[in-house]
Amino acid sequence: MKALITGATSGIGRDMAILLSKKGYDLIIASRDTKKMKIIQKKLPTKVQIITVDLSKIEDCYQLYDRVKEQDIDVVINNAGFGAFGQFWEIPLEKELNMIDLNIKAVHLLTKLFIQYFRQKNKGYLLNVASSAAFLPGPLMATYYATKAYVLHMTEAVWKELQKENSNVKLSVLCPGPVDTAFNERANVSFQLKGMKSKDVASYALKKMFQGKMIIIPGMTMKITHMGERFLPEKILLSCAYHFQKKKG
Fold first, then answer.
1. How many whole angstroms separate alpha carbon 43 and alpha carbon 139?
2. Cβ-contact 55, 81 below 8 angstroms
3. Is residue 57 pLDDT above 60, yes or no?
4. Is the pTM of this model over 0.90?
5. How far apart are CA 88 and CA 85, in angstroms?
6. Angle made by CA atoms 230, 234, 237, in degrees to the nearest 5
């Protein structure tokens, strides 16, 4: 058994790597940070292949696929991504475009390549990591929320296409709420709500992925919150989102 994980050097991605390795999966992990990947490689009980790539670059996404496509991969987890906090007109455009390249373009491209790969075998699991941010607009993190909405809706649509052809390929999207990870530091935010432990999120996500769940929302609080959002007008949701986002800064 073999799994490919992007963004596996910290947080949810790292914990998924640990859990899958304990289940007996050999791993391929891909990120820009070779040093951190080598640390993980030494700690895990199964074989770990490391591939250094910058997935915000399209050519690196293709490079990653070309390097692994001849291997018998069972699981692909698109976890790499980041956010940025601040007024839309104040966040540097270059940072936002880099975020779009990583959070959207890389996920889109790798999803397409590996769905085609899995369809040829008529089996496989692909998990895209989005966020509870995907369910509504996010003032003060406008671009990040929009990127995660793209990931959510694309995944849902492709899930339906696979279902209609009775495919054995399983596609899921993970939408966690606040999680205690290095993401917060890079995005320059501090959550007021107590974040879930990344290990718990990773464990729940893998369990539901293997069950073929389409949308995976860890934690009862976020499940209830998501259900409640459906009954509120858009302007009230925007006001609530701004209120909670403002507290993060």
1. 40
2. no
3. yes
4. no
5. 9
6. 75
